[in-house]
Design goal:
The complex is a heterodimer of chains A (615) and B (545). With 615 residues, chain A is α+β, with helices and mostly antiparallel strands. Chain A folds into two domains: 92 residues, Pleckstrin-homology domain (PH domain)/Phosphotyrosine-binding domain (PTB) (PH-domain like, Roll), CATH 2.30.29; 385 residues, no CATH class. In chain A, 44% of the residues lie in helices and 13% in strands. Chain B is of the alpha+beta class and 545 residues long. Chain B has three domains: 100 residues, PH-domain like, CATH 2.30.29; 277 residues, no CATH class; 30 residues. Helices cover 41% and strands 15% of the residues of chain B. In chain B, the strands form three sheets. In chain B, strands 4-3-2-1-7-6-5 form a seven-stranded antiparallel beta sheet, with helices on one face. Classes of the chains: A alpha+beta (615), B alpha+beta (545). Chains A and B meet through helix 9, helix 10, helix 20, helix 21 and helix 22 of A and helix 8, helix 9 and helix 20 of B. Chain B: It is a peripheral membrane protein.
Chain lengths: 615, 545
């Protein structure tokens, strides 16, 4: 605990600051300012701590977080600062998984809830939803014991015609044994998205089993015998890999394939791109032109566009040409995950729902072995393995939500929250690099699943504009990827810099209004029930009034007059007349009532018919 | 002159209209004195496009065999293409459009011929009189008076006949001050901050020249706005060097020696051809769909448009800050005081004054700070981003102002009674309109053209309940606060509603906007219903007892 610490405003040019007390706990760094506002920073979120040269007011300490929060403290005494600095360095670097927050995090959930939480997302169920197994695709037990590929899940779907020897042979010809498997199956087009790693082709090597494997995939698609092989790397990188005995498919050796490079850069380029972006956006007193040229030089939006362009190419191949597509990069766990998951998101509206998005992440990222631990630096490791690949995926999705505001059940807060927890190590889902590792860590027993917590507070993540009928199932979402559609994601990279955001949030207002509407609908039902209790028939008239009001259609549908279930309707009596004749102070109101009851008497009986049937 | 003389081919059949993100349509093209009318013949999907000739910024023609193609670029930035069979017809039509879209006499413009199809409920020409404004002012302070010194436009040709000045300064002094200020634009009241009694004045540069001429009356006039012992701020919208250079041409700035109670701040705001070029570059960048990301960002940067937005917003915030936070009076001017000065004073009022964020208040602001204050609309808005004429007085000064309002609107979406469409509508009408409001360069010219008698006012149309409903912001909730926008580059955005309006499919965004409005409307209806039911229940309960 250190008192009299100043928290500086990151962007203020004057030295505006808050004074307060800094606490170090086992898991968090906590700052409480003089007005008792608390700032909590999880140690796992800390990406870097830096001590700046001593100033007259004290020793400045800058903490950069993985969720793009940057805090700037000034500690009065240098020794305190040094102590905090050292403690934070130690606390933010974890050597073993078992020391991560997830293993000590103890929410108020009992054991069965914990188990349920982990069962929430069932991938077998998901493949069933897609329509596999079927005549062409089957579940393979080849990797049941992680013998063929350690970084793949146990359960894999392959073409029926791909026998075990073909699988084994193909896996030997693929980097890290990651042979082609099913990622997504499009029921209507009978086309599949498959994923793998690069072939070990070098300059001329061939593998008959691998060629058979690809043929099996193309044959598993009755609507189009041609299949695309998308190498998501820039051509130059792929060619360079040949020297190391890796490389890409030779079109001549494989029948019926169309080979295509899509040019997404590797993890190192992405890492330094984000670094540059953060440098620019963190500059104080930034000019518009420095911002725009910095944005350009960072290449960040160019990379996002490349990822989304690749996904659009993939989705169109499936939806327009009914062609199956095999996607790979080098190891098939970074760019391949991005492109496969975004492609599926464009093809299948299920992934645009809250639950569906969880399934998508669980399938294409977690189960297929995106190395979350390495990429997000969960343990103290090789800094060259860190890369914002998953962040780019979330940003691509955010771009889609901006273009199609009504297509997604979830909102921006959902994406931000997932990003937060990918780095927080508070839940077990993203720990480790692959399923095998997760099983060894016994995560399902020792930690909790994020998804049940997100579902429990679903309300916060719902998009009030969501229209489930926006795109019928399996119709393609076609985003416009002209450069000007891509914007800097301020709410991600400046999430904690309040001064930069609109002071009035339209989004929050719509959120709370929509929430309030539900409450009001509830209130109306209650009131009407009460009125009905008091006065048998009056509700009929009221209900008619409701019918007559010009509600906007889509919303009005949400309020069925189901409150009548509670009470059996009573026969028409003098009640209506009583109201009409009563001395109500509100004249306009009684006028309306009489008008409507005269206009359409038929509605009354109809309503009653409905009510009786439901009772 | 008869328009018929200019129209050799009044009608052409089998013309094909191409627009981005629309299917090509075949139909008939008709030319009238003021409109280009295209109507499709298909009965199932009859469509008509009416385009004012004055909305046409540039026209290109080319031929493939006997099929002619005309590309029309409009001042509202839309681009359409017409394929016209027959070389002669095409040439005739193109030359007619060219002639009709560049009429040089104001009195031939459409507003002089337009007959409204609606009933005029309120004559917009007399909706916003300075006298009314003064009445409001005199209810809170008696330090100001209405002066008619300019009633025949002889003291300052670009000022309205009446202005508000400090009470202690008589008309004789005003005449002297006018001689000391560029174009006779002596300091007048622009805004009075009720909260603390501070005033914002605007004028043009003082004519100090190289020998440091001074004018006692001018000093007395500006000092009259100061509380005793308090200082004021002069916000000069030119950089210091430009202000110094201006002395050689007889202009200048307020020197400390003669204005000891005033602190001068130079806050540079770009003007004229630089602004126009910036506008042209931005529109070019937005119209090219083939740009890769790097090229798009570098083009956006090279246009400098967002820099101008940031600079202007910063200057306006500065003026507002001096008044509200420092409790100081402010005098704003550049050189002529008809462009950047008005941008700053009007934006500062948006920030400070909740009234300016209502529809009527914003209209009043435009009338007061732009039309009556003598912003030369006719010169500045004669051409838009596609014109090749490159006249030095053309500049999107008003558009830049509207965009700044939009930027603030985006940051405070519940603080404005009007919506984005209202701003876009004003942009369109400033460049081409059936109404006379934006014709002429100042009140003097408008009076000579007898615009109030001969043309319809935009406000007569806009303020009808039917039209108003289109421009209302459903999220609006009046608040009396000063709204300080963020001017960080990360907080500014390209005004897509204007610059990308024709360049991308907007259906999904429009539908989402509609849904937002529905949610708000539905909320109001539900609340009303809950109240009704509560009353009803209370009545029943009372009856029961």
């Amino acid at each position: 605990q250190v008192e009299q610490v100043k928290l500086l405003d990151r962007f203020s040019t004057s030295n505006k600051s808050l004074t307060g007390t800094l606490y170090l706990t086992a898991t968090h760094l906590l700052f409480i300012d003089s007005s008792q506002r608390e700032t909590w920073i999880l140690h796992h979120h800390i990406a870097a701590v830096e001590k700046l040269p001593l100033t007259t007011s004290g020793c400045p300490l800058v903490i950069q977080c993985k969720n793009f929060r940057i805090v700037h403290f000034v500690v009065p005494r240098e020794r305190d600062c040094h102590d905090i600095y050292n403690s934070l360095l130690q606390l933010s670097r974890t050597a073993k998984y078992e020391e991560l927050y997830a293993f000590s995090y103890n929410p108020k959930q009992n054991e069965s809830e914990q188990v349920k939480g982990w069962q929430l997302i069932d991938l077998a169920e998901e493949y069933k939803r897609m329509g596999v197994p079927n005549d062409y695709w089957q579940l393979s037990d080849a990797n049941r014991d992680y013998k063929i590929c350690e970084t793949y899940p146990r359960e894999l779907y392959v073409p029926r015609t791909a026998s075990k020897p073909i699988i084994v042979g193909s896996s030997k010809f693929r980097s890290k044994g990651r042979f082609p498997v099913l990622s997504y199956y499009h029921k209507n087009k009978e086309a599949a998205i498959c994923r793998c790693s690069q072939p070990l082709s070098g300059f001329s090597a061939r593998c008959l089993e691998d060629e058979h494997m690809l043929q099996a995939i193309s044959k598993a698609n009755p609507s189009n015998r041609y299949m695309y092989v998308m190498d998501t790397r820039p051509k130059l990188n792929a060619m360079a890999n040949r020297a190391a005995g890796k490389g890409y498919e030779n079109e001549d050796n494989y029948s019926n394939i169309r080979f295509q490079f899509v040019g997404i850069e590797n993890i190192h380029v992405m890492r330094s791109s984000l670094q540059k972006l953060l440098e620019v956006s963190g500059t104080r007193g930034l000019s518009v032109n420095d911002f725009l040229s910095g944005l350009e030089n960072s290449g960040w939006l160019r990379h996002i566009k490349a990822v989304l362009d690749a996904a659009v190419f993939l989705a169109k191949a499936i939806a327009v040409e009914s062609a199956s597509v095999l996607v790979h990069c080098s190891d098939g766990w970074d760019r391949t995950s991005q492109v496969c998951s975004l492609g599926a998101l464009l093809l299948d509206s299920y992934y645009r729902t809250i639950k569906g998005f969880m399934v998508l992440i669980e399938k294409d990222w977690i189960s297929f072995g995106h190395k979350f631990s390495d990429r997000c630096c969960q343990l103290d490791g090789d800094p060259k393995e860190i890369s914002p690949v998953f962040t780019q995926f979330l940003e691509s999705v955010w771009n889609l939500t901006e273009q199609f505001p009504q297509a997604f059940e979830y909102n921006e807060a959902f994406l931000l929250q997932i990003h937060e927890h990918v780095h927080s190590c508070q839940f077990g889902n993203f720990l480790g690099n692959c399923q095998k590792e997760r099983e060894e860590l016994k995560l399902k027993e020792k930690t909790y699943s994020l998804w049940s917590f997100l579902l429990a507070e679903q309300k916060k993540y719902q998009n009030p504009l969501y229209n489930p009928d926006f795109s019928p199932e399996l119709t393609l979402l076609e985003p416009n990827t002209v450069s000007f559609n891509f914007k800097f994601w301020r709410n991600m990279y400046h999430q904690f810099d309040r001064s930069m955001h609109p002071r009035q949030s339209m989004f929050n207002l719509i959120m709370s209004t929509s929430e309030q509407n539900k409450q009001l609908e509830e209130d109306i039902r209650e009131l009407e029930a009460k009125i009905k209790q008091r006065n048998g028939q009056s509700d009929v008239v009221l209900e008619k009034e409701q019918e007559q009001t010009a509600y906007p259609d889509p919303v009005a549908l949400k309020s069925p007059p189901c409150f009548q279930k509670e009470q059996p309707p009573m026969p028409v009596n003098d009640a209506v007349r009583t109201i009409e004749g009563s001395n109500t102070a509100d004249n306009r109101y009684s006028e309306l009532v009489s008008e409507f009851s005269k206009a359409e008497p038929a509605v009354v009986s109809l309503e009653y018919g409905v009510a009786r049937m439901t009772c | 002159m008869e328009f018929a003389e200019l129209i050799k081919t009044p009608r052409a059949d089998n013309v094909v209209l191409h627009r981005p993100f629309h299917l090509a349509v075949e139909g008939t093209l008709c030319l009238t004195g003021h409109h280009l009318i295209f109507s499709s013949r298909r009965q199932d999907n009859a469509e008509e496009l009416w385009l004012l000739h004055s909305n046409i910024d540039s026209i290109d023609k080319r031929f493939v065999g006997s099929l002619g193609t005309i590309v029309i670029k409009c001042k509202d930035l839309r681009i359409i293409q017409l394929d016209i069979p027959g070389m002669e017809e095409c040439l005739n039509i193109a030359s007619s459009i060219e002639a009709l879209s560049t009429l040089d006499s104001v009195t031939l413009m459409y507003p002089f011929f337009y007959r409204p199809m609606f009933e005029v409920l309120e004559d917009g020409w007399s909706s916003f009189l300075l006298e009314q404004e003064f009445e409001l002012l005199s209810s809170v302070t008696n330090e100001w008076r209405l002066s008619c010194v300019n009633k025949d436009f002889s003291v300052c040709p670009s000022y309205p006949p009446v202005v508000i000045v400090p009470k202690s300064i008589d008309d004789e002094a005003l005449r002297k001050v006018a001689l000391f200020r560029h174009g006779g634009r002596f300091p007048v009241l622009s805004y009075y901050h009720k909260k603390n009694g501070m005033a914002m004045m605007r004028s043009s540069q003082p004519l100090t020249g190289t020998n440091g001429r001074r004018c006692k009356e001018d000093e007395k006039l500006v000092n009259a706005t100061l509380r005793s012992g308090r200082r004021g701020f002069v916000i000069d919208t030119r950089p210091l060097t430009v202000a110094q250079q201006a002395r050689a041409k007889g202009g200048g700035f307020e020197q400390e020696v003669h204005y000891p109670q005033w602190r001068r701040i130079h806050k540079y705001i770009e003007r004229f051809n630089i602004l126009q070029e910036s506008f042209i570059k931005l529109v070019e960048a937005c119209n090219d769909q083939s740009h890769n990301m790097d090229r798009w960002l570098s083009k956006l940067e090279a246009s400098n448009w967002l820099t101008h937005i940031k600079e202007l917003l910063t200057a306006a915030c500065l003026a507002a800050q001096c008044i509200d936070r420092e409790g100081a009076s402010v005098l704003v001017h550049g050189s002529e005081g008809t462009d950047s000065t008005l941008q700053v004073t009007s934006l500062a009022q948006i920030i400070l004054d909740p009234r300016c964020r209502t529809i009527r208040g914003f209209e009043a602001l435009i009338v007061r700070e732009w039309l009556q204050a003598g912003h030369p609309f006719q010169q500045r808005c004669a051409q838009s981003a596609y014109s090749n004429s490159k006249q030095k007085w053309e500049a999107p000064v008003f558009l830049l102002f509207l965009e700044c309002v939009w930027q603030i609107h985006r940051q405070f979406p519940c603080s404005f009674e009007f919506n984005e469409q209202f701003l876009i509508m004003l942009f369109e009408h400033a460049y081409a309109s059936q109404f006379g409001t934006f014709l002429g360069n100042n009140e003097n010219e408008r009076a000579k053209l007898k615009l109030p008698q001969k043309t319809m006012s935009l406000w007569s149309w806009v303020n009808r309940p039917e039209e108003l409903s289109r421009f209302q912001n459903p999220l609006y909730e009046a608040n009396s606060l000063v709204i300080w926008p963020s001017v960080a580059p990360q907080s500014l955005q390209l005004w897509e509603g204007v610059f990308l309006r024709w360049n991308r499919p907007s259906r999904f965004l429009e539908e989402a906007e509609e849904e937002r409005i529905n949610i708000i409307k539905y909320n109001k209806e539900l609340q009303a219903r809950v109240n009704t039911l509560r009353r009803r229940l209370a009545e029943l309960e009372a009856e029961g007892e």
